[in-house]
């Protein structure tokens, strides 16, 4: 009612024209900068008789208010930009650290494979010279020989990857199961290539 009286005093428009304008706002899909509110602000208004107040979508502000609001918006935008930049930079550092750790782990795995091959081969040579009782050596025995007790938990992943690598990529080492000292255990046996056996015949 206050808005209708104000418009009538300023423009001289009739109440019918004011209601027609409200009806056009309700039926229009355009954003005209005026929102029609009912008794419950959360519910949308569908008819003019339910409109109790008008709300401006573009409030009038003074120069100082506009400047402070623009400054706040600019500062917020800059802070969000730098926060996003810092997040991406941290993510990049984390990925580089992860890649470096994976490379170090892979290198440690290959070094472990070399040590395992050397131990199994030396054991087989000792067996040929009657310095060892069996031609095979227990996998856990090799692990305990190569890795100190205090490092076994830290090196577990490297050891597991090395064992898996040998099982799928090393033909000179054969994995078997034997009973040793009354206990079943997995062992490694050094296997000579076939051309060595042929040449020895």
From TrEMBL:
One of its GO terms (cellular component) is nuclear inner membrane. It comes from the Eukaryota. The chain crosses the membrane at residues 70-95. Residues 43-191 form the Man1/Src1-like C-terminal domain. It is found in: Nucleus inner membrane. Keywords: Membrane, Nucleus, Phosphoprotein, Transmembrane, Transmembrane helix. It is a multi-pass membrane protein. The keyword Transmembrane helix applies. This is Man1/Src1-like C-terminal domain-containing protein. It comes from Monodelphis domestica.
């Amino acid at each position: 009612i206050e808005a209708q009286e104000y418009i009538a005093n300023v423009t001289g428009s009739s109440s019918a024209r004011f209601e027609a304008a409200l009806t056009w706002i309700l039926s229009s899909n355009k954003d005209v900068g005026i929102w029609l509110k009912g008794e419950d602000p959360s519910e949308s208004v569908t008819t003019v008789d339910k409109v109790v107040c008008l709300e401006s979508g573009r409030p009038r502000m003074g120069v100082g208010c506009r400047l402070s609001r623009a400054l706040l918006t600019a500062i917020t935008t800059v802070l969000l930009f730098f926060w996003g930049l810092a997040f991406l930079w941290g993510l990049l550092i984390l990925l580089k650290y992860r890649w470096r750790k994976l490379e170090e782990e892979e290198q440690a795995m290959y070094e472990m494979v070399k040590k395992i091959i050397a131990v199994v081969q030396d054991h087989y040579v000792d067996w040929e010279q009657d310095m060892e009782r069996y031609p095979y050596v227990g996998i856990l025995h090799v692990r305990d020989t190569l890795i100190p007790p205090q490092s076994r938990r830290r090196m577990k992943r490297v050891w597991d990857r090395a064992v898996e690598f040998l099982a799928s990529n090393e033909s000179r080492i054969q994995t078997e199961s034997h009973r040793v000292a009354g206990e079943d255990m997995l062992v490694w046996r050094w296997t000579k290539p076939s051309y060595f056996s042929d040449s020895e015949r």
